[in-house]
Specification:
alpha/beta; 9-stranded mixed β-sheet; two-stranded parallel ribbon; 3 helices; disordered N terminus
Length: about 190
């Protein structure tokens, strides 16, 4: 048996790389937290663009959120300038994406999900509503924008994170929305871009 590098051995070795890289990929999806101001736009392994709040808002006020459709991330700055970024689900299509400025007007732990008329049009079999629990598409926590039916919320379906999969909302892992929820105050400014 020859010990030389054959194409078959090379391909088998390359096939193992995703398995070996998995811990690094999982780590790359972890929340980025800093207690210092964001200093520049660069990309990390997860393709998140690190953003500066000053590029989007005049002041931090009670806090600021940028929902970035392209990098599939939710960026949060606290009133003291602390920064966090979370991977998120994004709207399925451009038609479902509302872009612009909004703010958080309501928050709810254990939200109830009610499909919109357009959701019912696409899928008439949807229930009238779903209360808190594992079947609820809003996960464990929801933060409502001043645009009707647009939210930042959790999700029990973790396959949706990092993908176009929503009807307009931004979904986070339940554990991460639970971290973000107490930090976000009513009146927090939001930009969807």
């Amino acid at each position: 048996m020859s010990r030389s590098m054959t194409r078959r051995r090379l391909m088998a070795g390359l096939g193992a790389l995703p398995v070996l890289a998995a811990p690094g990929l999982l780590h790359a999806q972890a929340t980025v937290q800093t207690d210092r101001p964001n200093t520049g736009a660069r990309r990390n392994v997860s393709s998140f663009r690190v953003r500066n709040w000053q590029d989007h808002f005049d002041t931090l006020g009670v806090g600021a959120i940028v929902c970035d459709v392209d990098s599939r991330a939710v960026h949060y700055w606290g009133p003291d300038g602390t920064f966090r970024v979370y991977p998120s689900s994004v709207p399925l299509s451009e038609e479902l994406t509302k872009r612009g400025y909004s703010e958080i007007v309501r928050k709810k732990v254990g939200p109830t999900w009610t499909p919109t008329a357009s959701m019912r049009e696409r899928d008439p079999s949807l229930p009238d509503s779903v209360g808190p629990g594992p079947a609820n598409p809003l996960g464990t926590h929801a933060m409502y924008l001043d645009w009707p039916a647009y939210l930042i919320h959790g999700t029990h379906d973790t396959r949706k994170i990092g993908r176009p999969s929503s009807s307009g909302c931004f979904g986070l892992f339940n554990e991460q929305v639970a971290q973000l929820y107490p930090l976000v105050e009513i009146g927090t400014q939001v930009r969807v871009m």
